[in-house]
Write a structure and sequence with these properties.
Layout lengths: L2 H5 L3 H7 L5 H14 L8 H6 L5 H13 L25 H9 L9 H13 L2 H16 L12 H11 L5 H14 L7 H9 L6 H11 L7 H12 L6 H13 L5 H13 L2 H14 L4 H11 L4 H14 L4 H11 L20 H13 L10 H13 L5 H10 L5 H14 L4 H10 L6 H11 L7 H10 L5 H15 L3 H4 L16
Length: 518
């Protein structure tokens, strides 16, 4: 293990220092990055720039590390003529040129001219100029809510141009190009055919990047399902199975919404016949991809009775995702939630059909949810939290369930509190007690965004939450889009007026708080 890894220094910080103005800092960064380069799957683009640094100490360290790691020496970046915001100059060094391109602030957006120049450099520029341009486009895609309307129509064209460059790109440029396409999401649908063709060739080191990119594109990339299934079959033939890789492939199936009959049949077979992690992942994927089907619901009910915690929890979540709200489903959730700590889930007696008394099942579930805070040392703790989430997805609006979930939303256990908060938003009952519990959770940094989203779903009935939501919108870090998005959306949904004005911002302050990413 390298000294840099022992010191816990993030690779991102090291690569940032490689383009610093401080010569001593660049030398230290070069020495440390040289020790870890052989452990990296992809060579950071800043390393290519450092290989041509005017300081021979920096360039020699990086070049030697590239040779030791058997990596190709990137071409030297060129110094372009002046002429505009991106192309201004003169530039004392390629490093200054690099930093100028990377100075584009994604959070504030860009002009049409700057965006077009970045696209031109990313597609046709020299390698040393394409890297920072691709990095800037990647950042812009992540902060996509800041695109102006005149940029959005250009995105499919950018995706098509970038896809056309993949075949002849070097290792760094190819990885960065895929990063941009991945952050473009569904806007990169025009690149699917190119990505599938590359995926079929099984290029070493590229497979995961391609799958991740296809997953971000979504349902337009469903054609990748046969290739993903083929890789899953090959994995199962290995000993031992790479469970991390297996999980990644299942996640890709879920993201591309691969719900073809052949895929579902394969998943159901694995859910019935396989064991261990393979079975759990198949159940998880079936719950997300399967249709409301009595046969699947019966399979999941059987698995909920299993003694294996991870499989049981996956089956509970799958029942909620499947959306089959039968008396039998509610009953088994209630029986699970009322099982005493340390006891196995009771199985129905042979020959005796399960009860269809929905009211009794609801009362059982309500009772156990109410007692959640009293069972700190409970082996079913995670299962109970998943059951709370499943009850929310099944829209169980019985007063007993709503009351119990309200109590669970105040539970000391973080996982349970989060799932109960989300469930209350899913159910959508605007009870004063529900609103009070959700407002209280706005002060919890871990679930604040979830609570805001739940309050927004209650609409004008949650008007008592406006003051707390406005306070968050005013004082939160402008870069916290994950929080400000749900908060501003909740303000708009509750008041039917623009969130930023309600949050106390003047019109000239609106740029300080990012809009929701939608």
């Amino acid at each position: 293990m390298s000294d840099a890894m022992h010191l816990g220094i993030p690779i991102e910080r090291l690569t940032k220092h490689l383009v610093s103005d401080d010569q001593a800092l660049r030398r230290v960064a070069a020495a440390l990055i040289a020790q870890v380069l052989c452990f990296l799957d992809e060579v950071p683009p800043e390393v290519g720039l450092a290989a041509h640094d005017e300081d021979s100490v920096v360039s020699d360290l990086v070049r030697e590390a590239l040779r030791a790691a058997d990596r190709e020496l990137p071409a030297a970046p060129v110094e372009p003529p002046g002429g505009s915001i991106i192309r201004g100059g003169p530039w004392p060094s390629p490093r200054d040129r690099w930093r100028q391109i990377r100075s584009v602030d994604a959070r504030k957006g860009v002009t049409l001219e700057t965006f077009q120049e970045l696209c031109q450099l990313a597609v046709r520029g020299e390698p040393g100029l394409r890297w920072p341009s691709l990095l800037s486009l990647k950042d812009l895609a992540w902060f996509s809510s800041h695109w102006t309307p005149d940029l959005v129509p250009l995105l499919p064209g950018l995706a098509a141009d970038l896809a056309a460059t993949l075949a002849g790109a070097d290792e760094i440029t190819r990885a960065l190009t895929l990063d941009v396409l991945r952050n473009l999401g569904p806007q990169a649908a025009v690149a699917v055919d190119t990505l599938l063709a590359m995926l079929a060739r099984e290029v070493p080191g590229l497979d995961s990047l391609l799958l991740s990119t296809l997953g971000s594109i979504g349902s337009a990339a469903s054609g990748a399902a046969p290739l993903v299934l083929d890789r899953l079959v090959k994995l199962e033939q290995q000993e031992p199975v790479d469970e991390e890789r297996q999980s990644f492939l299942h996640l890709t199936l879920q993201k591309i919404e691969a719900s073809s009959p052949s895929t579902l049949e394969w998943l159901e077979q694995r859910a019935r016949l396989s064991s261990g992690e393979s079975r759990r992942l198949a159940v998880e994927s079936l719950g997300l991809l399967g249709r409301s089907d009595a046969g699947l619901a019966s399979l999941f009910l059987d698995l909920v009775r299993q003694d294996e915690p991870k499989l049981r929890d996956a089956a509970i979540v799958a029942l909620g995702n499947l959306g089959v709200s039968t008396p039998e489903v509610v009953e088994i959730l209630g029986r699970l939630l009322t099982a005493p700590p340390g006891r196995r889930l009771p199985r129905p007696r042979p020959g005796k059909p399960p009860s269809s008394d929905r009211e009794a099942a609801v009362q059982d579930a309500a009772m156990i949810l109410k007692e959640m805070s009293e069972r700190a040392a409970d082996p079913l703790k995670d299962s109970r939290a998943e059951a709370a989430g499943a009850l929310g997805k099944l829209r169980c609006r019985a007063p007993e369930i709503v009351s119990a979930l309200t109590s669970a939303a105040r539970d000391p256990d973080d996982h349970l509190r989060l799932e109960a908060t989300r469930a209350l938003g899913d159910i959508g009952v605007a009870d004063p007690g529900v609103i009070g519990a959700l407002i209280a959770n706005l002060d919890d940094s871990e679930i604040c965004a979830t609570a805001a989203h739940a309050l927004g779903r209650l609409g004008p009935a949650a008007r008592d939450a406006l003051e707390a939501l406005r306070r968050i919108a005013v004082h939160a870090d402008p870069g916290d889009c994950w929080l400000l998005g749900p908060v501003n959306e909740a303000i708009e949904a509750i008041s039917a007026r623009p969130a930023l004005r309600l949050a106390g911002h003047d019109e000239h302050d609106e740029g300080k708080v990012p809009k929701s990413r939608g």
